[in-house]
Structures are given as structure tokens and as C-alpha cells.
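pinned: reference chain
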Amino acid sequence: MAGKWVTETGDGYGQTIEVTRTLCCTQSKFQKIEIFETARLGKLMLLDGIIQSTSADEFAYQEMMADLPYYTHGSPQRILVIGGGDGGVLRELARHPEPEVLDICEIDEEVIRLSREFLPEMACGFDDPRVTVHIEDGSEFIRRKPGYYDLVIVDSTDPGGPGAPLFGEAFYADLKKALRPGGVVGTQAESPWLLPDVVRQLVSAARKNFAFVDYAAISVPTYPTGMIGCCVATDRHEPAILSPETAEKIIPGLRYYNKEVHQAAFAKPGFVKELLGF
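pinned: its C-alpha cells
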């Protein structure tokens, strides 16, 4: 923090946000956790200096990360979130009546504790009685759950931190084994503007394990380059396709996700098609 500004920098880019008050600044066993009040974006969370969320636009990320893969499946009953310690993806999943199991595996319990204290509008996801919290490495946890889940959502940090094991080919093979037939995986898939090699590697790893893999864009203004991706992988059907029956079940009144956005998010500009081989 320099003066009244916080700047995330890396890979030749930066994003600077004006802050008014420090709510939390601590070092956990895994990473530096910072939470600020900002001048116009509400609360801001950073992990190891990387912007994770702001109150102003977190709904876009949380809704899309939860519902793109959720509605690709249609009616998942057993769901696992890997990462996502702020509770935002859980909050969106908890809106749905179908799930019987909502597991979350977060490696850093301090993220959960501090989110509950300072970010209750997201951490309310932990209050659903279906939620069970597991504090451990998600890449190890799923190896003990063969054939168990209908949906796994990987809400990871960037590949340079504790989330590094969640970007490799072996992890996607383990994800596949953890699914019931017709299961779906949705993973945080970075920005092709900022980390094109990581995006290509991640999509390639998914393709080696699943019949249908696609990449969707999510607009999040406070992330460097203003967007991030979600990779959806399954043996079920093309992720961009919503059946009429599934489309009718979409929760009304969400602030970002809807039927049209689901389909449009998978449309790709030419350079992304070339990058990913679509």
C-alpha cells in the first residue's frame, strides 16, 4: 500500500484501487491476506497482493463460477467447491434446492475466518446447513472421493500461490475420477489477455480427460484486463448448450447470470479461438 492506493502488479499489468481504511493485514501459514475499505468499490480482498474480490463486482464472478457449470449439469446433488474460502461461490450454490451435499475444501482456514468477520455478505454461504467444510489441500482431498460428486467447482487463486497444484494435468485426471457419470467440472481459468499460456495449458489438461471442454469469459472490471475465464468440462454435452428444461429452472433475478449470458459467455474472439484451438 502506497499512500491511499493499493496496486496489484504482475506479468506487465497493474490494477490500482483507492483505499480508505485497512480492515485486516495478516500472514497466514500459506499467504498474505489483506482486506480494505475502498473509496468507491466497497471492500477489497487481496491474497499475496492479488485482487480476489471487491464488493462492487464480486457477484459477476461468483454467479458465473457457480452457475455456468451448475446449469451445464442441470440438477447436481453432490457438489464440491475447492478453494472459494470467501464463501461467495457457496452463496450462489446455496440458492439452489437440488443439492444434498455442499462440500468445500479450502487449504487456508484463515481465509474463511477473516471472510466471516469482514466479508459476511459473501461468507453467508457457509451458513447453509448442507455445507461441510474441509480444511486441506483440494488436490489431495478429491483422491479420496472416487465417483462421488456430480459437480466440482475449482475457485482457485492464481497458479503462483497455494493454488499451483490445481492447474496441472494430473489434477484434472483426479477430478474426472471424483465425478459420478455425467459429472461436470468448472474451474477458474484466468485471462487470455494476461496469462495466455496458463489458459492454453489448463484447457489442454481438461481436454485430455473430458469429451466436452469449453472456455467462458466473465467480465470483472476490478481484475487486471477486466475479465477472467471459467473452463467447463464434462462428458455430458457441450457446455454452451442449455436444454429448454434446464433453461426454465434458471433462478430469476440474478445480477449477472442468465440464459442469454450463459450461451454468450462461450463465444470467442478470433485470437482466443486460435490460442485454444477451437
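why pinned: Residues 58-276 form a domain with the Rossmann fold fold (CATH 3.40.50.150). The two ends are 41 Å apart (CA to CA).
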